Amino acid sequence: MTKKVSRRMQALLAKVEDKDYAPLDALALLKETATAKFSEAAEAHIRLGIDPKYSDQQLRTTVALPKGTGNIVRVAVIARGEKVTEASNSGADIVGSEELIDEIAKGRMDFDKLIATPDVMPQVAKLGKMLGPRGLMPSPKGGTVTFDVASAIAEFKAGKLEFRADKTGIVHVMFGKAEFSPDDLLINLKTLQDTIERNRPSGAKGRYWRSIYISATMGPAIRVDVNALRDLKIA
Questions:
Q1: Please, what is the Cα angle at 175 between 172 and 180, to 5 degrees?
Q2: Domains of the chain as residue ranges with CATH
Q3: What are 196-233's pLDDT values in tens digits?
Q4: How far apart are CA 41 and CA 29, in angstroms?
Q5: Which residues pair with 44 in a beta bridge?
């Protein structure tokens, strides 16, 4: 059964040509097509030449967006002793030890990022089935298993994101809000591209960059000129 396209989407699709857009032009068009009645995210969907079923072709890392995400990030920290006080003093929204683990096990999920110190990870591990599907399970690669909780809290509050390639080799990540200026969105998008470049899996052979599409949450996909973005220099 063919899904019916709304009049709104038909009008937006008519604005987008089947071509590679220069990065700044693509971002200006993203803003023009962000017509929903709420604050839409700016999303990137990046197809890479990798097969994540092989361990040396997996991509999972973090990016610190210079212009932030535009979202308020609620951070929870599971720790012990003085690290509990440090987390609380550093702006964590929720802090606890074994009692917080128990609350999460019972369904508490009022946070966007969960940080844990290494010494509590054996207990946190039992939450894997609950946290994993939501992308909330702390991990060293994601920067969410650390004793330096103050720095981790500050980074995630400021716009640090964890992302990974899905099983088809596509990275889906928010890189700001459609209400940001094109220049600010470009800085974030370029930072994301640089991060993916630096973290190229060792097993990735041949053409690494296949395609980059951007869109507002409720907007049409806009194809970005991959080479133009890669060649871009931002002071």
A1: 145
A2: 16-69+160-231 (3.30.190.20), 75-158 (3.40.50.790)
A3: 999 999 999 999 999 999 999 999 999 999 999 999 98
A4: 14
A5: 173, 214
